[in-house]
Design brief:
By secondary structure, the chain is of the alpha/beta class. 35% of the residues lie in helices and 21% in strands. The protein has helices at residues 24-27, 31-38, 56-63, 68-71, 75-83, 116-130, 182-195, 199-206, 229-233, 244-253, 271-281, 294-300, 304-326, 373-378, 389-395; strands spanning 2-8, 10-12, 41-45, 91-102, 105-108, 136-142, 145-151, 214-221, 237-240, 256-257, 287-292, 332-336, 341-343, 348-350, 354-360, 382-383. Helix 5 crosses helix 10.
Length: 396
């Protein structure tokens, strides 16, 4: 049996007036997804459990069959696994985003999708300003996404907020807060002073690009043991993604991360390469997961036009070739679903159940439906504990 999972991150949405009250999934031309849905089963699955926020860390763990209440270590430790950072029990790790804050408001959670080399230069300047006082160490990542580790700190009672959850909102009520937050606020203040007139930001200002005015610390956690996918489900796996978070989850699950030239987190990704490498990997692994970040990033920019184009590109260049490849095997299954909804209207993730489709060399639903949020809700297949979907996918 061969299994493939395609994750169009954040593809689910709410109806949009400018689209005639259609969602981007409904407005997109996606013949391969719709055909797969009509030849399989669709339904909804709740990937955001009670008492959790609808972040990709929580929702992807759920999607891949792990109960966040038992296995979620915090967002940053998952990304640390992607970087191969060795953390001991005394280490806390946090996400360290470059963001754009103007007049006290979160204007851009990604500092204009700052380039890797610019981000690394800025992070080096922040490192020199903050130093290693208090066991602080910065670790450069991709674009605006970085990590910060702290040795010997106690962040147990600190509350933080993802920057993409507060677009265009005043940040003062969302800064790190609670006992133990003071050192974090001090680090953020020092970073702001360094970034204000840094050469990288001066150049970005000249070109009319959003500047990295601040670092934003959030998503803290400590490492936690997660059993491998093979231990739980008895099969090998591989991941294709441009996002460190997903690479970290794959590492912890014992999956192979497959590097694909030309892929990114945005609509400039090489969709065709993602599709080709997914097809090739199916020859060597029981299960291959292809994650495409572009719909989510478009949603965070309230850009429903690009979101539709990204869904259409995924359908043509990923879903189509993967379906064709899977049909060369005697037994196969395909799961397509976003990890969570991301609404263009709010530019934020949403905790609503997401639509999924499962197709393959098995039975199909008696009612043929296209792959949309509304059609999934009209189905009689609804999974409340999201982590149970994986067993259903692998065995039903």
């Amino acid at each position: 049996m061969k299994y493939a999972i395609i994750i169009p991150d954040g593809a689910a949405d709410a109806p949009i007036a400018e689209l005639g009250n259609k969602t981007p999934l409904e407005a997109a031309c996606k013949p391969n997804m719709d055909a797969a849905a009509r030849n399989g089963r669709i339904g909804t699955v709740r990937t955001t459990p009670p008492d959790f926020s609808p972040g990709s860390d929580v929702c992807t763990l759920c999607l891949l069959g792990y109960d966040p209440a038992q296995y979620h270590p915090g967002r940053a430790p998952l990304e640390a696994a992607a970087m191969g950072l060795k953390l001991n029990a005394s280490n806390w790790v946090m996400r360290c985003n470059f963001v754009t804050i103007i007049d006290g408001k979160m204007v851009d959670h990604s500092a204009g999708h700052i380039k890797d080399n610019e981000g690394r230069t800025l992070l080096q300047a922040v490192t020199e300003a903050v130093g290693n006082a208090g066991g602080v160490t910065f670790h450069p990542g991709v674009s605006y996404r970085n990590l910060m580790t702290l040795a010997g700190a106690d962040l147990t009672k600190v509350k933080t907020t993802p920057p993409h959850d507060i677009p265009d909102q005043p940040v003062k009520n969302y800064l790190p807060r609670g006992a133990g937050a003071e050192p974090l606020l001090d680090i953020m203040n020092k970073a702001r002073a360094v970034l204000k007139d840094h050469e990288v930001n001066l150049v970005r200002r000249q070109f009319g690009e959003n500047q990295a005015t601040d670092i934003w610390l959030w998503g803290q956690g400590k490492p936690k043991h997660i059993p491998s996918f093979k231990e739980r489900y008895g099969i090998s796996g591989a991941m294709i993604t441009a996002v460190d978070l997903l690479r970290g989850i794959a590492n912890l699950l014992g999956w192979k991360n497959i590097d694909v030239p030309g892929i990114s987190s945005y609509h400039d990704t090489d969709y065709a390469a993602q599709g080709k490498y997914t097809c090739d990997a199916l020859d060597n692994f029981d299960l291959v997961c292809c994650h495409v970040e572009a719909p989510d990033e478009a949603s965070h920019q309230a850009d429903f036009t690009t979101k539709i184009k990204s869904i259409e590109a995924i359908d043509e260049h990923v879903v189509g070739p993967v379906l064709k490849k899977l049909k060369t095997f005697d037994q196969w299954r395909l799961l397509i679903m976003p990890d969570h909804a991301t609404q263009c209207a709010t530019r934020k993730h949403h905790e609503a159940p997401v639509p999924f489709l499962i197709t393959g060399s098995h039975g199909k639903s008696s009612i043929a439906r296209a792959y949309t949020e509304q059609a999934a809700m009209e189905s009689d297949l609804h999974i409340e504990a999201g982590y149970e979907l994986m067993s259903y996918f692998l065995t039903k």
